[in-house]
Design goal:
Largest sheet of chain A: 4 strands, mixed
Strand order of the largest sheet of chain A: 2-1-4-5
Low-confidence stretches of chain A: 129-137
Radius of gyration of chain A: 16 Å
Structural class of chain A: alpha/beta
Number of strands of chain A: 6
Shape of chain A: elongated
CATH class of chain A: Alpha Beta
Oligomer: homotrimer
CATH architecture of chain A: 2-Layer Sandwich
Number of domains of chain A: 1
CATH topology of chain A: Macrophage Migration Inhibitory Factor
Number of helices of chain A: 4
CATH superfamily of chain A: Macrophage Migration Inhibitory Factor
Order of helices and strands of chain A: EHEEEHEEHH
Helix content of chain A: 25-40%
Chain lengths: 137, 137, 137
């Protein structure tokens, strides 16, 4: 954790750079200072088939689901949400110029009693020498 | 919101029309009159790799996840679920003829305090002139 | 139910066998004896775009989401989680040799009041003659 999943309609292939969106979302999450760098996983899921609103061919969406471990206050989670949503709006700004796009974000907490994890990146990233390579972020 | 995600096993490519399924699900959601047209986003996620039940090659599934904002009663949510499930069963009816298919639906509510959205379609669809183009739905 | 979804970064294509992972996870779920064989659906979702941790190109993840119906105790759910996570760790063991991989699992319960299902496999699998074909699992 945290996990940020980006579902998007495939008709955005030529209208949005989803790779860049993922990068910017990663930066936004890390910049909140609420999460450990090695734990942040952003990914996008392309949805070839979709049917949106009044079903015009140009209708499109990006929907973000952010799942986090317990341990942050509601205020902190809201702050993370604001930062993520702002980053997404910035990257996707041109899409709002036409009345065929919707962006959304939901945050949900993971039950710590029903969660398992093993992360080989932490040891590397918690090492100060490697942290000097922060430019990778 | 609402968001309807359809996960399906890729071995349905030649046995089901997932594009039509999305269209029919969109119509079913809108016909409940519980949701604003511009907010409904149906999409399908194709799962290339899968392992189902007794792992026969023909085993297949369609799993629907419907996420909605707060504000509808349990009765209304159940009514929406019934309508969505009925539509899915109708489109996928031939798949039930052989004992290798499972269909499922879950509804889950989104926490309004941890939800953000921006929708460029509403302004267009709330305009009465455009609503006359309801045939797009 | 139960549903086990495997999200993974596409840069694992040459480093992990996701088909085998699905098979092994299916076996692990069934071996818990907590779930009916015909109900278990494991599938993987490939994420072409991703941005992970310090954003090195080799950073990768596998994230498991296990959704189950009500009716099992916390202890039983934990036992299922342990079994699933152990199976995933075994299949993906080589990935932990380099400090660029993270594995995670979350279990979440489905609200029985907002769940619908129809399964054509049960009739076949509940038939004792067919259960003799357990080698398919």
């Amino acid at each position: 954790m945290p996990h940020l999943s980006v579902e998007y309609s495939a008709n955005l292939d030529d209208r949005a750079d989803i790779g860049t969106l993922c990068e910017r979302l990663l930066k936004a999450v890390i910049a909140t200072d609420l999460f450990e760098v090695g734990a942040v996983r952003v990914r996008a899921i392309r949805c070839e088939h979709h049917a949106i609103a009044d079903h015009r061919a140009e209708n499109a969406f990006v929907d973000l689901s952010f799942r986090v471990g317990r341990g942050r206050s509601l205020t902190e989670k809201k702050r993370a949400g604001e930062a993520i949503f702002a980053a997404a709006q910035e990257v996707l700004a041109p899409l709002f110029d036409s009345p065929h796009f919707a962006l959304s974000l939901e945050i949900r907490e993971i039950d710590p009693e029903l969660s398992w994890k093993r992360n080989a990146m932490h040891a590397r990233l918690r090492n100060s020498e490697d942290q000097g390579k922060g430019q990778h972020v």
